[in-house]
Amino acid sequence: MKKSVFSHSLDGAWSAPFPDLDSPQTLVLVFGAPEYRDDPAPFRELRAAFPKSHLIGCSTAGEVFERQIRDRSLSVAAVKFDATRLECASAPVASAADSHAAGLKIAECLLEDDLRAIVVLSDGLHVNGTALAAGLNSVLPASVIVTGGLAGDGPRFESTWTLGGDQLEDNRVVAVGMYGEAVRIGHGSRGGWDIFGPERKVTRAEGSVLYELDGRPALDLYKEYLGDLAAGLPSTGLLFPLALRADETSEDQLVRTILGIDEANAALIFAGDIPVGHRAQLMQANFERLVMGAESAAQSALLDTPDGLTIAISCVGRRLVLAERAEEEVEAVADVLGTGMSQIGFYSYGEISPYADGRCDLHNQTMTLTTLSEVA
User: Fold this and answer.
1) Where are the beta strands (DSSP E) in 172-253?
2) Whole-prediction pTM
3) Same domain, yes or no: 217 and 322
4) Displacement of CA 147 from its chain's centroid (Å)
């Protein structure tokens, strides 16, 4: 396996000449600022330089490049595999109701006996990440590792794009499948938030829309907790995600982050399902634990090969909370995985990964890592 990471700035040019890595077994990953929608020329340049390769990517709420977090840029990795076959697939997702079908279609397109892993990148605003994962899981065996994330638009929540080839598109999910015995994939997903306030029961919800907690309008209750910060919803909601568990005895916890609000119905719109009957509790940041969570994710993603690529997908809420300390979590990942692992990634509206093993699920407010390498 050969690799190269490089970048582009909206205010400048490419950081380095394109590497000579084009082939049908080359994956080109591109994570870029939302503003590239209005300046798509760099994607055409990438396609011209890599005509045989598989290009996928998405918009971000910040780009990860090695040990840095950037804005108004593209973070790019070109990975030429020696013995790993690649195939791409995509599906439309015009609304949250299309999410399960999109996951199902991608899984059906990519499933073959030697499929080992899928990296999936989705529209960030019109998708139900829980249903997308369920659609994938309905077809794929548990042995196939699925990781990825939901595209971002900074803190604006207005428009996201995904990239397939050299085409930027709204309302689409893109994915790449990796095949064969040579590819090595590691993964890890951790949070680091603290729970606070009373635990309440989800008494009314439909899919990813939460209407009532303990019989009270969810948006009204949430605004009470946010106080003056409520004026900045939905972006300020990223600072206070929701922890969910099935009942009082369950130790398994889902985290959900807000994508939007419905003032008319006093409802909150999340990136994934909010099951009726689950217990819900607010979360808040603990700076040291957030960085420790990223470090723990890296420990889980360690491979037995020293050279490869790390895809780091962290939630936009973590970046907003960590502020000027956000690079600490990226640096923590790099320190654990070592200098042989190049790193690119992005800040997202949701992360897709297994918990420890098995089938994938939607996560929010986590650092989610995928490590890729290859053995002869």
Assistant:
1) 172-179, 183-190, 194-206, 209-213, 216-217, 242-245
2) 0.89
3) no
4) 8
| Mean pLDDT over the full length of the chain | 94
How many structural domains are present in the chain? Answer: 2
Residues 6+ apart with CB under 8 A from 244: 202, 253, 254, 255, 256, 274, 275, 278, 279, 280
| Model confidence band, residue 311 (pLDDT cutoffs 50, 70, 90) | very high
Tell me the residue ranges of DSSP E strands in 191-278.
Answer: 194-206, 209-213, 216-217, 242-245, 254-256, 258-262, 267-270
Residue 159: helix, strand or coil by DSSP?
Answer: coil
- What pLDDT shows up at residue 364? 87
Q: Please report the pLDDT score of residue 356 as a whole number.
A: 67
In this structure, are 101 and 23 located in the same domain? yes
Contact 120, 110 (CB under 8 A): no
In this model, does residue 255 exceed pLDDT 90? Answer: no
Place of tokens 């971000």: 60
Pair 55, 153 in one domain: yes
The mean per-residue pLDDT over the stretch 221-236 comes to: 89
